[in-house]
Amino acid sequence: MSTPHGLGRFVTRRPRLISALGAVALVLVGIVGAGTIGALSLNRFEAPGSESMRARDALARDHGTGSPNVALLVTARTGTVDDPAAAAAGRALTAELAARDGVGDAWSYWSRGGTETLRSEDARHALVLAWVPGDADHVRTGVLPDLAADLTRTDAAVEVTVGGGDEVFRTVMEQARADFVRAELIILPLTLLLLWLVYRRFAAALVTLATGLFAVLGSLALLRIPLAFTEISTFASNIALVMGIGLGVDYGLFMIFRFREELAARDGGGDDVREAVVATVRGAGRTVLFSGATVAAALAVLLVFPFPFLASFAYAGVAVVAAAVVGATVLLPAAAIRFVVAAS
Questions:
Q1: At what angle do helices 308-326 and 235-264 cross, to 10 degrees?
Q2: Structure confidence by residue, pLDDT tens digits, 250-272
Q3: In the structure, what pLDDT confidence band is assigned to residue 47 with cuts at 50, 70 and 90?
């Protein structure tokens, strides 16, 4: 007996129990998944143990400096950055930045003898650069928020804007976290409406959307496993949302349409409904399992690369696939027996 066939028989034996357990599981993974968001880390695109990382560590250890990860863009309000007022403000800003807690080294156009690489061609803009040691979480959450708030300013001589690689990623991450919630509030109602237009049955649309929601929350809950031994990027939450809704709804459509076809070929009695579910899981369920295995294998290849940032995509992708396959081949068929047939 094939695995999909046996799975179909299992679902038809206890549809009420599986539906109830599915509802409980949805709540539980939602609770666990909510905690995952805060446990995700801010990663840099770095390869631990690489030659560049060893050089960075040597610079920090032997010379107390490193590649700049914070940049202040200083713009002269009038004239150029070489004017006395702007130059004095630039030197004072460099000293202020170097004296801040958490900053390991700071230098600027004015402290390096007026090097042209730190000044714009029209001489209206110049840079103050700084190296803030520490991992991405420390720099972006422990140092940069206060630094950016304190040093973004405009006075009579200059206007100062905070930038740099870590500041850009910090801003992006804050926006990504806010967008995750906003996207759910937009995507879920629109997806439900589109599914209703496809099915013309609210119960079928709701069950399919629930499969996608289970994939999202389930994947976030599953990420707690790799989080126990490694760091995972905050981008994993966006992967979970996009792929979870996409795969969950896609697999749900496969299953619901195949179930309707199988049911239409029978009389519609109780035994026929169960046989239709078994045939659906045996046919469309096999497709879902094969598709899920293919997607998971493709994403797992990212683990080969030595970048934790890319590994986060692999962990999130595999978790999404696992949750979507379980939702589509176990929870959805059980719900179909109880709700979809009744609505039809």
A1: 20
A2: 999 988 888 888 877 876 555 67
A3: low
User: Residue 200's CB: how many other CB atoms inside 10 A?
Assistant: 10
Q: Which CATH class is domain 69-163?
A: alpha beta
Number of Cβ atoms within 10 Å of the Cβ of 285:
30
Indicate whether this model's pTM tops 0.70: yes
Tokens linked to 15: 């549809």
Q: In whole angstroms, give the CA distance from residue 153 to residue 162.
A: 9
The predicted-structure confidence for 223-260, as pLDDT tens digits, reads as follows: 999 988 888 887 888 888 889 999 999 999 988 888 88
Q: Where in the chain is the domain with CATH 3.30.70?
A: 69-163
The vertex-26 CA angle with 22 and 31, nearest 5°, equals 145
- At 123 the three-state DSSP class reads coil
* Distance, CA of 299 to CA of 242 (rounded, Å): 14
Distance CA 31, CA 36 (A): 9
Closest among 85, 103, 112 to 150, alpha carbons compared? 103
Indicate the DSSP class of residue 301.
G
What CA–CA distance (Å, rounded) separates 136 from 43? Answer: 6
**Overall residue count recorded for the chain in this entry:** 344
Q: What is the CATH number of domain 3-46+169-343?
A: 1.20.1640.10
Contact 141, 112 (CB under 8 A): no
Give the tokens for residue 201: 């049955």
Q: Which residues pair with 127 in a beta bridge?
A: 73
Closest CA relative to residue 140, chosen from 158, 119, 124, 164? 164
Other beta carbons within 10 Å of 76: 22
Can you say how many angstroms the Cα of residue 116 is from the centroid of all Cα atoms in its chain? Answer: 40
Would you say 295 and 239 are in contact if contact means Cβ atoms under 8 Å apart? no
